Amino acid sequence: MPANRSRTERWRESLRQVYERGGGLEVAVMRGPGDEGGAVDLVWRVRVLGLSEREIVVERPGALGRCVEVPPGTGMTCAMSIGQNRWMFASRVVRSTPGPRGSLVLAMPEGVERCPRRNFNRVSTVGLRLPQVECWPLLDPSSTAVAETANQSAMRAALSGGPHGAIDTIAAAALPVVGPVFPASLVNVGGGGAGLLISKEHAGAVDGTRLYWFRVHLTPELPLPLSMTGRVVHHHLDHEQNVAAGVAFEFALNPAHRDFVAEQIERFSARVSAASARRAA
User: Fold this and answer.
1) Tell me: the pLDDT tens digits for 27-78?
2) Which helix (H) or strand (E) covers residue 15, if one does?
3) I want to staple 188 with a disulfide (CB 3.0 to 4.6 A). Which of 11, 45, 122, 209 is the partner?
4) Which domains does the chain have, with CATH numbers?
């Protein structure tokens, strides 16, 4: 029997291995059939806190010091990885524990499915659509405060139904002094940072010694891209020579922007969770 097939059939052992090593799962609120098109999934990296025959206990998703509310009954798309092997499964929230160190209790799945190497975010039953990110190397970090303030003004105007022409003008100006842009995908978020996947064609653009300006597209819940500054703190090549990069968000030059970014992440998550809860009702 091939090793990967054997591991899939013994997936509970793999899950326990993740737990015993202090590892985590990637989880996202499950989208409905009507959410196709431009809708994307925000994936959270959460640590596994406990296991039983029927339940998986994980950290509550959160970013920048704020936990995200996920109501009981919400469908979840989950993934676990060991080395280059990755499995996905569907679950639902059974209950949650409030508080800053709260947890989510997920229903144990009946089975998992191994992801193909060339499409590691989709199997036959569930899938993830990763948000796209525009990345620029920052040439003048001091120019980010003005751009962040412009991003806040444009986002608030768009959320309040302001005139599109004025919003587009503000959004176009919301760019600091930067170098050439390159694309990435937002693999996951958690704590004070995120994971990005950058195609091998743009691998040379990754430099751990400098700051970057990011625009994250979280449609349709957020009408405009969410902009922020960050630094690549670690990176490595995957099996296809693409770059997997860990990014730490930076707010030292404009601390107030931290609350704005956290607020928009909460807004996105609340809207997706509410839609999922309505479908489950």
Assistant:
1) 999 887 656 567 899 999 999 999 999 999 999 998 888 888 888 889 999 9
2) helix 11-20
3) 45
4) 3-114 (2.30.110.10), 132-250 (2.40.10)
d(CA 51, CA 136): 41
Name the region of 200 (left: φ>0; alpha: ψ -120 to 50; beta: rest).
alpha
Kindly compute the dihedral angle of the four CA atoms of residues 263, 50, 121, 197, in this order, to the nearest 10 degrees. 60
Q: Which of 27, 18, 76 is closest to 279 using CA atoms?
A: 76
CB 62 within 8 A of CB 68: yes
Which conformational region is residue 64 in: left (phi greater than 0), alpha (psi within -120 to 50 degrees), or beta? left
CA gap 262, 76 in Å, rounded: 21
**Coil, strand, or helix at residue 253?**
coil
State the chain's mean pLDDT as an integer: 85
Q: How far is Cα 154 from Cα 150, in angstroms, rounded to an integer? A: 6
Q: Which amino acid is at 205?
A: A
Query: What's the whole-model pTM score?
Result: 0.87
